[in-house]
Amino acid sequence: MAEKSKLSDSCLRSIQGIRDTQDLLSGKWKIPIIGALYFNGKFRFMDLGRHIEGIAPKVLSKELKDLEMNHLVKRTVKDTMPITVEYELTPQGRSLKKVIEAMGEWGTDYRKAVLANALENS
Amino acid sequence: MAEKSKLSDSCLRSIQGIRDTQDLLSGKWKIPIIGALYFNGKFRFMDLGRHIEGIAPKVLSKELKDLEMNHLVKRTVKDTMPITVEYELTPQGRSLKKVIEAMGEWGTDYRKAVLANALENS
DNA sequence: GTAAGTAGTTACCAATAGGTAATTAGTTGC
DNA sequence: GCAACTAATTACCTATTGGTAACTACTTAC
Known about the structure:
Two copies of one chain form a homodimer.
Chain A: H1 9-24, H2 30-40, E1 42-44, H3 45-51, H4 57-69, E2 73-78, E3 84-89, H5 91-94, H6 97-120
Antiparallel strand pairs in A: 1-3, 2-3
The structure holds a DNA duplex.
């Protein structure tokens, strides 16, 4: 029973993978955060917040915790006066390269196509 | 004023693209839907529902409308008796190939890494 | 002592996402 | 007529997301 799926195992595995990826990157802010860290290397908490327009400290804090829990971001407390905290991608986070690039390219292409289409119909 | 960003324009454009992509694929179900259509070609409404475990018709309907509105999925009413409706990816939807592949690969790799790590610590 | 900067946390609220169950409306087969 | 299929829609409810604003706690500069 429950063998209605005609999708092959490899397809199901792929879809599972896509879903996992999406879960880890879910929400409004994880992508901009990862993007900023990906393109810039390291950031302190407030600095990161300032570079991501519109994010509240509460949300930034929560998102960073999520990302840290999933081993995509590393948090380092620097024993400076005043104390500072640095965030950076882990190797696992940096391994998102292809995903980030693919999504970035597709998104910009899509935007162009939508604009072109909008102009056509105007 | 408001020039706090040290991120280059090309980075910001990339992040915008990633965000656009993610918005279009947002929610719990769009990825499994696109995945099924991507790996299987065409599906009728109920068939698609049956292949995506746990989705309610209301939600499937809404997600398909979203995808159709964004030109990623094409809906075709077949004038058969009983009437059937076919859903398939548009060329624009199929152009998600690289994104789908990148996310699928990264997700399965991540899953393996997490499993390996869990075994190490057991 | 006061302002400003570090990194957050807390309480509260509103909007959205998504789930359940029933219903609509039409056709086919028995 | 009645069940079962097609493709949805509707009403209702709950949980999660994310936003605002204020607050903690500690340090440095003036």
